[in-house]
Each structure stands twice: as C-alpha cells, then as structure tokens.
Amino acid sequence: METLIAKFGGTSIGNGERIRKAAQSVVNEFMKGNRVVVVVSAINKTTDNLISITEDSIGDDPTPKQMAEILSMGEMTSARVFSSVVESLGVKSEFIDPYNRFWPILTDSNPLKAKINFAASEEKSKEISELLDQGIIPVICGFLGKGPRDEITTLGRGGSDITAFFLGHALEANEVIIVTDVNGVMTTDPNKIEEAEKLDHISVEEMRDLATHGAQVLHPFALQYKDPRIKAKIISFEKGDLSDSGTAIIGPLNGDMLKTATLYPEPISVVAIVGEKMLNKKGLLANLTSVLAENDINIFGISAGENSVTTFINKKDADNAYHLLHTLVIGSDRLSSLSLGQDIAMLTVVSPDFIETPGIISDITNPLRKNNINIVEISSSQTAVVIFVDWEDGKRAFEYVKEVLE
User: Fold this and answer.
1) What are the extents of the domains in the chain?
2) How far is the C-alpha of 162 from the C-alpha of 113, rounded, in Å?
3) How far is CA 129 from each of CA 83, 124, 213, 272, 274, rounded to the nearest angstrom?
4) List of residues 6+ apart from 354 with CB closer than 8 A
5) Distance between CA atoms of 226 and 283, rounded to whole angstroms?
6) Does pLDDT of 219 surpass 70?
7) Is 168 exposed, middle or buried (0-12, 13-18, 19+ CB in 10 A)?
8) Does domain 3-250 sit in CATH 3.40.1160.10?
9) First vs last Cα of the chain: how many Å apart?
10) Do strands 308-314 and 299-304 pair parallel, antiparallel, or not at all (unpaired)?
11) What's phi and psi for 273, nearest 5 deg?
12) What pLDDT shows up at residue 69?
C-alpha cells in the first residue's frame, strides 16, 4: 500500500468531463489498494472570474481579508464537486476546507501571502491519516490556509503546489503527483518548437531555474517544499492515469531548498580582453570559449561590454588560458590586447526566494560595502547571485553574506 498525493490544476478539472476523468483516476488507484489524498485548485478560470467580478463591483477597495475570502470560493467549490464525483463512483470521500475539523494547513495572519506554520501544520496533518485508515479519500483545497484566529488565508502564487508538496512531507507519502495540462516537462515549449521532447526526469534545481525563467508547469516557490525523500512527478490529465510516468522531479540533491552561500575554495583569475566594438563581431564569444574548452579550461563566469570581455577561470589554468587567448587576440582584427588580473574569490548565493525578494542584491552587497570590501564583478539570475571579490577578502565576505541569509 502506498500513500499518494494527487494535485489537480485548474485546467485538469476545467469542466465536468475532466473532473469525472480525474476522479476516476483517483478511484482507480484506490482500488489498487493505495491511499490517495487529493489536492485541488480552483476550476479553470474561476479565480480570474472572481477577481474580475470583484474589480467590476468594488474596484480597488476590497481589504486583503475580504479578497482572501472571495478567492477561497474557487478552491472550496472544486473540493466539493470533486468529492461528490468520487462518491458517485462508489468510494467514500470527504471534502476538507478551512472550516473542516481536519483542515491541515495552518498559517500566519497574512491574508494573501501567508506562510505555513510548519510545526503546527505537521501535527494537524496527522489527522488526515485517520480518514485514510477508514478508506476515505480526502479532497483538500489547495492554495488556502487558516490563520491563528481561524481566518481564511491564501498561500500566494503556486499555492496549490505548495499544499501538495507540504502534505507529501507531512504524511510521509510515497509520491506527489502534479496533474496538469502538459504531458510532463518538455525540452522546450512544444507550441513554439514541434520537435520538443518530454523529459523522463529533471532535478529540482533544474526545474526551479526553468520555472523562474518562464516555464508555467510548476511555480518555483513551491519546489522548496518538496521533501527529497519523496518521489514526485508531473503528468497530463488527458490520459486519466495517475500511474503514467510523466516527468519525475528528482531531489533536491542538497536535501533542502534553503538559502545557501558557498565560497569556492581555490583562487580565481581574471583574464580581460579589450577591443573595438567587440559585441558587433559575430562569433567572437564562441571563438573565445571554444579555445578554452578545447584545452579543458573551465569558465566560471564571463561578462561582456562594448569594448571588453572578462573571463573568470581557475588560477591553475590562468597562465595557459592567457597564452591561448593572446594567440586569439593577435589573430583578430577586432581585438587589441588582454591582461591577466589579480587573484579573486568567488561567492555563490542561492535561494528560491530571490525571485520574490525585491532588493535582495542590495541586502547581500551592503555589508561588503560597509566593511570596505570591493566587488570585482557580480552576476545574478532569479535564483542565484555570484560575487567576485579580492582573494584576501574572500573569507570575510563569505561570513558577512552568511549573516544576511540567517
């Protein structure tokens, strides 16, 4: 017997036919002897309709508390309908919303972007096992929470996925299944490139980065709730089969998705190349990186300006890289000169919260400025910040950055 968490997105329960197919897929797993917990989003476009109606009737005046109550109607309706369909198929079911005594997701008092109280919610979630032991399929509202005064709260973007991953952890489930309108994670958007292929598996780290750069399959914020011990996958609703392989989500490999800071243990060297209107020269960067790659030299970072390109490489490879790139310079009519700079340290800061945290780069760099640590170069994505400082300042900078993350 396995415990499965099956989360159905709004599109996968977008009409009566889809809801019945989804409910049948849950019943099929139940009949195999598995215990199934269902998490549902609002039926397709319900939330958008509720927001539109509210804006048309009230304008910008509803309070956050009122908005949370209004938005909650989408998931509450989905849970009731889905549970009723399961029972029509001959299996006991109970819908669970924040007014139900079994409600497991307890939060702080923020109405529209609540944070889960982990300890209290883990304890409360154990009561869901009582229903499972009785042969009941619980259908739980995704996205919603209950605050300290029993008020309705919402978990913000990716809320239903958060609910599913959290319950997977709290109930020590065997697998979390995200049912959506795609057949899994693809090599790219199949609507743009027909040759796109489905991936058999993808790491949490890769999925997080893919999601932060626009992939709509899963919200990156939800991934920090994934328990590394529990299997997870993304499948399509179209097959109506929860055992479909879809795309497995592996990890996280580091055991958690908390903010982390690392200091690369070896010194990094800077090789800077200057020239005239370098960015207008087609293939220039490709030639530069190819020369280093062909000689087994790794590039830790690269920055390009109108008249310069700076590469960051391990110090042990610096002299070789310097000579190789010099050959490239003297053979080009666009490049003028290059230099081998000082030893520097590389700090990498990673967090799934960065995409949701305005001013995070200032928070990280301000302690360095206050302590007179010069930043040689900085690069960032939606989930990571890489900082290069003078080698002698590396350990101090690392300690200051760690304090920011605590």
Assistant:
1) 3-250, 260-405
2) 12
3) 17, 10, 37, 61, 65
4) 360, 380, 382, 383, 384, 385
5) 41
6) yes
7) buried
8) yes
9) 40
10) antiparallel
11) -115, 135
12) 96
The reported pLDDT for the residue numbered 38 is: 98
CA 303/CA 321 separation, integer angstroms: 16
Confidence bin at 188 (pLDDT 50/70/90): confident
Q: What is the mean pLDDT of residues 253-257?
A: 47
> Do 175 and 233 form a contact (C-beta atoms < 8 A)?
yes
Structure confidence by residue, pLDDT tens digits, 344-382: 999 998 876 666 677 778 888 999 999 999 999 898 776
DSSP per-residue letters across 360-380: HHHHHHHHHHHTTPPEEEEEE
- Given a cut of 80, is residue 239 above it in pLDDT? yes
* Architecture field, domain 260-405: 2-Layer Sandwich (3.30)
**Would you state the pLDDT for residue 256?**
47
The answer to whether 217 and 211 are in contact (CB under 8 A) is yes
Calculate what percentage of the chain has a pLDDT beyond 90: 69
Of 37, 138, 125, nearest in space to 96 by CA: 138
pTM of the entire predicted model = 0.78
